[in-house]
Structure formats: C-alpha cells, structure tokens
User: What shape does this take?
Amino acid sequence: DAGVIQSPRHEVTEMGQEVTLRCKPISGHNSLFWYRQTMMRGLELLIYFNNNVPIDDSGMPEDRFSAKMPNASFSTLKIQPSEPRDSAVYFCASSSLAGATDTQYFGPGTRLTVL
Amino acid sequence: AQKVTQAQTEISVVEKEDVTLDCVYETRDTTYYLFWYKQPPSGELVFLIRRNSFDEQNEISGRYSWNFQKSTSSFNFTITASQVVDSAVYFCGDYGQNFVFGPGTRLSVLP
Assistant: This one.
C-alpha cells in the first residue's frame, strides 16, 4: 500500500494568500484526520471525518480554515487568507474503522510557511 | 476540562537501559481513549497504542509496555532495553469530548 499521501510537502506563501493542502488516505480507510503541529501549541487535532462526513471540527482554529472530503480518496484543508501564525506542519492520517479510536496511519506532513 | 501532562520534558538514557515515560491525564469523561504516538527525528508521526477507559489491562508489544491506572489517572509507557532507534519525541493523548495531547517527552538514547 502507498500509505497516506500528502501534497505539497513544503509550501511557502505570503500572508493573505489562499493555501490548499491535500491528502489521499489509504484505500479502504473510513476515517481521516487533520492535525497541526507547532512549537507554541504542540500537536492539535483540527478535524476528523468518518465516511467523508465531518464529525468533530472543534479544533479548527477559525473561519479562515475549512476542510472538505468530497470522496473517500481525497481531502483538502484550505486556509484563506493565510497568516504567519498558520505556519506549522500539517499532518493527515487515516484509519480503517469509522471513529477516532482506531490505529491511525500518518502521512509525511506538509510544512507550511506563511511570510 | 481535559488535560494531559507529560512532566518529563527530556530524558537521556544509555542504550540497553529501561526507561519509563510518564503521562497523567485529567478528564471528566466517563468514556475516553488514551494514546501514545512517536515522532522520530525525521518528523513523521507513528501511532503506537490506544487504550479505552474500560480496559486497564497492561499492554506489552515487544520491548514496549504500557501501564494504565485509572486510580492515578496515569498511562505510562516503558521501553525495555532501549535502543538508539528509540530516540524520538513521544506524545500522550486523550480522546473524550476532545482530542488533547501532552507536550511530549524527548527521549535520547545514547550509544
């Protein structure tokens, strides 16, 4: 299996620009998670989907952030407009069972830098 | 409110030593799940274990073991006969109402 695929691996953008991060979960997995990691805030769960439906988005920081999962094989995390404080590593993970409690497999992460 | 404390910021051991990473959680949820993740220097995240609040049995997986004690709200992680490849940051997490992570413990295993 190819594992969880994230793109791009690195993104540098200027404040105010729209940023879209992409994730392809492991085929057959039913849950997908977006995490953010920064030095200041540590590791945070932003949102997770079960069967393409957002279940818990309580970690989404504000309206500038939005996540979609139009089908079982693709998800996006969009930031519009981006700000320097959004600079972080964003991880996507998937798990085979619906729910937040099964083994999660992580992608390599996207390192976002907002100037 | 949920909270996860990993009081040990950094630990250094010499290879083959046993090491225990502490995790203390606070929650009002009656049903919750506890997790451990590993983040090696390369930066990826590796899911190690989950445990639900109704299962206090200890878990052993090779050199790794976990001790869950509800009485002390702890979910500690022990590595037996540590190896250099165990060097990483280890995160403990709690999922109840929300997913909350501890700040991590950086483990350095010296040859």
User: Anything to note?
Assistant: The longest strand of chain B covers residues 88-95. Chain B touches chain A through 18 residues (CB under 8 Å). The two ends of chain B are 41 Å apart (CA to CA).
